[in-house]
Amino acid sequence: MAVTADDILRALAETCDRSMIWASELALSSGARRCDFWTLAPCQSKGYAATAYEIKVSRADFRRDTPAKQREARLFSDRFYYATPPGLLKPDEVPDWAGLIEVDPEAEQFKRRRIIVQAPLRDKDAPSWELIVSLLRCSGTIERDSDMIREQRNAYRRMLTVAADRLKADGKSPWDFGIHLS
Fold first, then answer.
1. Which residues, listed in sequence order, are joined to residue 54 by a DSSP beta bridge?
2. What is the pTM of this model?
3. According to a count of CB atoms within 10 Å of the terminal CB, is the N or C end of the chain lower?
4. Mean per-residue pLDDT pooled into runs of 10, the chain (182 residues)
């Protein structure tokens, strides 16, 4: 079965560092150009690093791509990657301004993405108002660090519930152990 762009997008989102803010189908300016997947490190210590990903699932689609089409994605990113199924592109086919990540949606989560060509680091431009508005409008899917915090809170609640159930099964009161479920 052929890997689709949706498969790669889902794998990129699932393997994205949970501390990152990410967006899919992000309109970069007037909406004429979109970035398939874009990540932003939400902290000054990481330099607010931004990475753009262009998903390609066929050689014909890659051959139609041009530096001009990816100009805006590169302007607002420190690094730019093509994300493809394994073996679609050879490293020497990747432009010097881009990197290559192979994504295998069927692999174990920590092996789903592999950097084949490291993208060069560049200084990104300051965000345009169009980019800021696009982020605020949530064009596509945007995951924020608050989503990560909510997931962690829910995981802790589940762990407390399991602990409380085990204590009750042993005839003990969760309250006696400081477990208060509301």
1. 82
2. 0.72
3. C
4. 88 84 80 83 86 95 88 88 96 96 84 92 80 65 63 82 90 85 72
* Start-to-end CA span in the chain (Å): 47
CA distances from 119 to 20, 55, 156, 166 (A): 18, 15, 37, 50
Structure tokens at 132: 């800021």
Q: How many CA atoms lie within 13 A of 78 on its CB side?
A: 9
Strands ordered across the beta sheet of 34-40: 113-117, 99-103, 79-84, 50-55, 34-40, 21-27, 142-143
Closest CA to 21 of 4, 5, 41: 41
pLDDT computed for residue 120 by the predictor: 95
In what helix (H) or strand (E) does residue 65 lie, and over which residues does it extend? none
* Alpha-carbon span 36 to 140, nearest angstrom: 9
Instruction: Count CA within 13 A, CB hemisphere, residue 25.
Output: 8
Helices (H) and strands (E) in the chain, counts: 5, 7
Token pair 């042993």 is found at 170
- The set of residues, in sequence order, having a beta carbon less than 8 Å from that of 77 and lying 6+ positions away, is 38, 50, 51, 52, 122, 124
Q: Which helix (H) or strand (E) holds 100?
A: strand 99-103
Paired tokens of 87: 């073996």
